[in-house]
Design brief:
- By secondary structure, the chain is α/β, with parallel strands linked by helices.
- It folds into 2 domains: 216 residues, 3-Layer(aba) Sandwich (Rossmann fold); 99 residues, Magnesium chelatase subunit I, C-Terminal domain (Helicase, Ruva Protein, domain 3).
- It is 46% helix and 16% strand.
- The protein has 14 helices and 11 strands.
- The strands form 4 sheets. Strands 2-5-8-1-9 form a 5-stranded parallel sheet.
- It starts with a helix and ends with a helix.
Length: 329
């Protein structure tokens, strides 16, 4: 792609991405200091990538998702995952009509644009399996029939990193389906004071819908056209491959990593970097786009060895070492 074409694309993207600041402005009316979370949610919407949110209770995870849904005029459903949840509680079931003597499908809460799966690791395996079909195939099977899910469709799941009693560890196949894993941190002292002033009245803060779901879907086509240089593609492959074969990059990590990131990490890192460029009004990806999203893409895809856990190392520590070793193009 020539520089002239890239400049034209950048101008087009600046026009197409104007809704981003409008969305952020509406979310900031309610949420204090969580632009990082909102931007990552937008990346998920623009790339059809599901998101896993990890943080202690009370950090406005649910409120952030609900507010975003209001700003894009999308259907929002919150599903509280519990050990007694059944697949039918999620997807729906067949109901017998006594008048006609026939069964008809009653659709479950999964049929919405934005799904908040609260404490996802509290549900048993059968429910996780039903959710996995929805996430991967974007469809739901009720009885003998299959029904497509609405577009856009995004699953945002939360899990509590503190309380593990009564939880079911998510299978690796399902964790890998989440494009990003975000760690929601505590607000700063000044941010917490703003939260106190804003929320103490108890009155709901009005949020205006500034974009329709159809515009999000149209923006996806523009994101797919963002230019990525061949050297940056090689850089992404090196970052992911170094988690599997660290010795080839002169990294002494093979005893710390049990399993490296899957090829899905390579695909998601590129797509997330393209969406990040879109949010910043650029028609091309730069290394900073990759660095901005790589940690969120990789942190749940690297499985550490017992030796790493004994040394109290985290996946973030390993990813930082990989980034330090791979030269930026």
């Amino acid at each position: 792609m020539s520089s002239v074409d890239i400049n034209r694309l950048t101008e087009e993207i600046r026009l197409e991405s104007r809704f981003v600041e409008e969305v952020l402005g509406q979310v900031r009316k309610v949420i204090v200091g969580q632009d990082y979370i909102t931007e990552r949610l937008l990346i998920g919407l623009l790339t059809q990538g599901h998101i896993l949110l990890e943080g202690v209770p009370g950090l406005a995870k649910t409120l952030s998702v609900q507010t975003l849904a209001c700003t894009i005029n999308a259907n929002f459903r919150r599903i509280q995952f519990t050990p007694d949840l059944l697949p039918a509680d999620l997807t729906g079931t067949l109901v017998f009509n006594q008048k006609t003597g026939e069964f008809y499908p009653r659709r479950g809460p999964i049929f919405a644009n934005l799904i908040l799966a609260d404490e996802i690791n509290r549900a048993p395996a059968k429910v996780q399996s039903a959710l996995l079909e929805s996430m991967q195939e974007r469809q739901v099977t009720i009885g003998d029939s299959t029904y497509p899910l609405p577009e856009p469709f995004l699953v945002l799941a939360t899990q509590n990193p503190i309380e593990q009693e009564g939880t079911y560890p998510l299978p690796e196949a399902q964790i890998d389906r989440f494009m990003l894993k975000l760690k929601v941190e505590y607000p700063s002292r000044s941010e917490e004071r703003q939260i106190l002033d804003r929320m103490v009245s108890g009155e709901p803060i009005p949020v205006t819908a500034v974009v329709e779901p159809s515009r999000i879907i149209a923006a996806r086509q523009v994101v797919n056209r963002i230019y990525v240089d061949e050297k940056l593609k090689e850089y992404i492959v090196d970052l992911v491959y170094a988690t599997r074969q660290p010795e080839e990059y002169h990294l002494e990590l093979q005893h710390l990593i049990a399993y490296g990131a899957s090829p899905r990490a390579t695909i998601y890192m590129l797509r997330a970097a393209m969406a990040h460029a879109f949010l910043n009004g650029r028609g091309y990806v730069i290394p900073e786009d990759i660095k901005a999203v790589a940690l969120d893409v990789l942190r749940h895809r690297i499985i550490l060895s017992y030796e790493a856990e004994s040394e109290e190392l985290t996946t973030e520590d390993i990813i930082t070492r990989v980034f330090d070793a791979i030269p930026v193009p």
